[in-house]
Amino acid sequence: MDEYISKKDLLAATGISYGQLYRWKRENLIPEEWFIKRSSYTGQETYFPREKILERIDKIQQLKDRYPLEDLARMLSPELTGITYRVSKVIREDIVDGPTAAIFQRKLNKEFCSFWEACVIKALGTARFRGFLTEADLERLADGFEDWEKNYKSGAYMLFVMKCNGINTVVLSAKEPPILLDRALTVVAGYDLDQIGAELKSRMNVF
Q1: Domain ranges (residues) in the chain
Q2: In angstroms, rounded to a whole number, what is the distance separating the alpha carbons of residues 143 and 138?
Q3: Contact 14, 57 (CB under 8 A)
């Protein structure tokens, strides 16, 4: 249970009230699926994914006096559709990895990119910067990018960088249910597109 925290312990650790917690839930600042009901000796108790909820409440407390709750919910929402950016803004190296963005800009040849595209490019750029993907890998991935986008459905996704017999590959998978892998595949890195989306919204001022 170390990866989860009870509602009682959460309120004590963060100093927020029961009313605040459920107001933030109603305002879509905290996802409903994070409220996990589990049996206990008292009947039922609510638990939360510890790391995610503590990080989310810390962000809310930092930002709630700067932004209306409705705007803050948009910033923290994991939804990856309905927002577009001018490519020239996304390609800035302080937003995404410059060499990675340049490859996708050349391959896609678009003036605007979707928020989903920006999140994926951010994840791939992080992998390139850390040495998990080469520019040749990115060239290959960019060629198939439109197929990814055609088959993308709204939801929570993970992007995994894997290696098989010395070859780098990428798997884009829904977070639930988890994927089951052949032992020949080694997971080198995993990126949560929800978390990347929240970071991009914060840094690119999506209000």
Answers
A1: 4-65, 84-204
A2: 9
A3: yes
Tokens of 29: 């600042």
Per the CB < 8 A criterion, the answer to whether 164 and 184 are in contact is yes
Mean pLDDT by 10 residues, the chain (207 residues): 85 95 89 85 85 91 83 66 67 72 83 82 93 94 85 80 92 82 89 84 59
Helices (H), 27-143: 50-63, 69-76, 87-90, 98-108, 115-129, 135-143
CA dihedral 110, 113, 114, 116 (to 10 degrees): 110
Which has the closest alpha carbon to 121: 151, 136, 141? Answer: 141
**Tokens linked to 164:** 């098989």
pTM of the predicted model as reported, rounded to 2 decimal places: 0.61
State how far the Cα of 93 lies from the Cα of 70, in Å rounded to an integer: 29
Question: What is the dihedral angle through the alpha carbons of 95, 191, 74, 64, rounded to the nearest 10 degrees?
Answer: -80
Which pLDDT does position 67 carry in this prediction? 79
Q: What is the pLDDT of residues 102-120, one digit of tens each?
A: 888 888 887 777 788 888 9
Percent of the chain with pLDDT over 70: 87
